[in-house]
Design goal:
By secondary structure, the chain is an alpha/beta fold. Helix content is 48%, strand content 10%. The chain has helices at 2-31, 41-63, 65-72, 76-97, 101-115, 128-147, 151-172, 177-194, 251-259, 306-311, 325-338, 447-456, 459-465, 467-474, 482-513, 520-526, 529-547, 566-570, 573-585; strands at 198-200, 206-207, 230-238, 245-246, 249-250, 316-321, 343-350, 353-355, 369-372, 399-400, 413-418, 436-440, 479-481, 559-561. A hairpin with a 2-residue loop joins strand 4 (245-246) and strand 5 (249-250). Helix 15 runs antiparallel to helix 19 (573-585) and helix 17 (529-547) crosses helix 19. The protein starts with a helix and ends in a 14-residue tail after the last helix.
Length: 599
């Protein structure tokens, strides 16, 4: 009797401890939404505490599963809910740190939920709120798989999500039925838009290629002492109205964030999905001993300063979908504030233009228009239109003007503008003598591309993301066998290598002969792998569109400020020759003229 009582007391303590950890974890998780989205130090310690509690909770439920099953009535969907919260933690930590390894950790927990069918009996619980949790889990898992380019799994998950939505709406006839139908429609539209060009196996099945930076795709560079800057802070803003989107990621944002990340390392991958040694037969879930895998700031074992910077592969970035102007300025200021010595800030904006009606502009900062941020209909209440016109002569408040960026030129600033009003940003002055580069998209594209590109993402961003894909797109090449793709990609690689050599040579000629071929801003940014990649892909875009028969107007080609040299770089015969060789290899030579033509 004494032994039985002792066992019951021990079981009661296990249940009480589990309830305590569960409640504590919920409190901490709910508190995450109150943390500021910007800045580094304000949220790190809180994330650390949250990870610690979830680590304990996950281990605890694995160690005491039999007791919790019999005495607490632990259900599989409850385990799934804990795993889902851990997956969300990793995903949000990825968003805050830009480290792609955390995406892999989010994936491992989401995959375990599906593999162990934790939510399989959710519909039998007769709780619509539980079904909503299941649907949200699917939506989050799809986002993570999209970012990891697991497209085969994405398509499987979409089919499953559609079936789950059907079951949910048939069983409960909920008020949010239309909302979930729109979510499904968004996902399908995004997947369709994402596959601009299909790369095919020999058996005609599509291959998914990653366009993150890797040692194989990093452009070569002959380094000089002047290449002093490294990209540290990034702001990616998507405000284009008609563009395909999913989960507050437009297609342009989706492509650019991958362009500014390195391929995830494989150091942690062998452990993904492996059971814990003490997990027993109950689970094949990810090992809680790996939470967090690289040390979370604020948690035990985390080392500040040197070790953290050594581990960080990617610049820190913020993602903003249709922000208000005040939100945009706050995040921009935060990135500016966080810049270390020798660091550079990158602002990427994909947005519709706000156009000015001023006939004789004198202030290039505010009288040429700018870019629409969020389109606030309540602007009408103040007598203002959403397109920059006003009977009272006021400016559109929900618009980013070139003049709004002047204060941020106090530090090294790299700007990419993708808009039909991009050229108004070419007049930003360098009041403070700091490095400043502005890459601007074409303001117009030929009519036969307009309908698709408005929804499927910008051509300029596609060139910066994957020059080969963009080249195929402007030549109406819809699919390419993998062996042919790799052969054609070698021409792009040759182009980038040659363009890098020309940039360095321009600088050397300038030093030796005193000829101002290339602005020093480009040279200072050129030592950073990401910024060098963007500059060289911009050069490819300019040369390809300059030679293409369909892009004839000056507004149909990109611009940059300071201007890159023509004869020495953009119009150099060796670069034109490589593009034309690529066109021949793709069997689209007829789309291109014989050589560069003037404006």
């Amino acid at each position: 009797m004494v032994k039985m009582a002792s066992t019951e007391e021990q079981d009661r303590k296990i249940v009480l401890e589990f309830c305590h950890l569960l409640e504590k974890s919920k409190q901490l998780f709910n508190g995450l939404r109150d943390l500021p989205q910007y800045g580094h130090r304000q949220w790190q310690a809180y994330f650390g505490r949250t990870f610690d509690v979830y680590t304990k909770l996950w281990k605890f439920q694995q160690q005491h599963r039999l007791v919790l099953d019999s005495k607490y009535g632990l259900k599989r969907w409850q385990i799934g809910e804990i795993a889902s919260k851990i997956g969300q933690l990793y995903y949000h930590y990825y968003l805050r740190t830009s480290e792609t390894n955390y995406l892999n950790e989010a994936y491992s927990f989401y995959a375990a939920i599906r593999g162990r069918a934790y939510y399989s009996r959710a519909i039998k619980e007769d709780r619509p709120d539980l079904m909503v949790k299941k649907l949200r889990y699917y939506a989050r898992f799809i986002v993570v798989c999209l970012l990891l380019k697991k497209m085969k799994l994405v398509r499987e998950l979409v089919i499953e999500l559609e079936r789950q939505i059907q079951e949910y709406t048939t069983t409960y006839e909920p008020e949010d039925q239309l909302e979930w139908s729109l979510v499904l429609e968004e996902i399908k539209g995004f997947i369709k838009a994402e596959s601009a060009v299909a790369v095919l196996h020999a058996d005609t099945n599509p291959i998914v290629l990653s366009h993150r930076l890797s040692p194989l795709t990093t452009p070569p560079c002959e380094r000089t002492p002047h290449m002093t800057l490294s990209l540290q802070e990034i702001l990616i803003v998507g405000s284009a109205c008609e563009q395909a989107k999913f989960s507050e990621l437009t297609m342009d944002m989706f492509r650019m964030l991958q362009t500014l990340e390195r391929e995830p390392t494989d150091a942690m991958h062998p452990m993904i999905g492996h059971p814990m040694a003490h997990g027993g037969p109950h689970d094949a879930s990810p090992a809680a001993s790996r939470m967090p895998p690289y040390g979370v700031p604020g948690s035990k074992g985390y080392v500040e300063n040197g070790d953290r910077r050594a581990m960080r592969d990617n610049p820190h970035k913020y993602l903003l979908y249709k922000p208000s102007l005040s939100q945009l300025m706050v995040f921009l200021s935060s990135g500016f504030k966080e810049l270390p010595p020798g660091g550079a800030l990158l602002l990427y904006m994909s947005a519709d233009g706000c156009f000015s009606t001023t006939k004789h502009p004198q202030d290039y900062g505010y009288e040429l228009g700018g870019l629409a941020t969020s389109v606030k209909r309540d602007a009408v209440d103040s007598g203002l239109s959403v397109r920059g016109k006003s009977s009272a002569g006021y400016k559109e408040p929900h618009c980013l003007y070139p003049g709004d960026l002047y204060p941020y030129t106090r530090r090294p600033l790299f700007i990419i503008i993708d808009s039909d009003n991009s050229f108004v940003f070419q007049h930003i002055p360098r009041y403070f003598g700091q490095p400043l580069v502005i890459l601007m998209s074409p303001q117009d594209i030929p009519a036969n591309y307009q309908a698709d590109l408005q929804h499927h993402g910008s051509l300029f961003t596609l060139f910066l993301h994957s020059p080969m894909t963009a080249m195929c797109y402007i030549c109406n090449v819809g699919d390419v066998p993998i062996h042919h793709w790799e052969r054609c990609q070698s021409y792009v690689d040759r182009f980038v290598t040659e363009a890098s050599r020309l940039v360095t040579r321009c600088r050397m000629d300038e030093i030796e002969q005193g000829i101002g071929y290339i602005d020093s801003s480009y040279v200072q940014f050129f030592g950073d792998d990401f910024l060098r990649t963007l500059i060289l892909r911009f050069v490819f875009c300019d040369v390809a569109l300059r030679l293409h028969r369909g892009f004839r107007g000056r507004h149909q080609r990109p611009r940059c400020e300071p201007p890159l040299p023509g004869p020495e770089l953009l119009e150099h015969p060796s670069l034109a020759h490589i593009v034309l060789q690529l066109a021949t290899a793709l069997d689209v030579r007829g789309h291109f003229v014989e050589g560069p033509e003037g404006d």
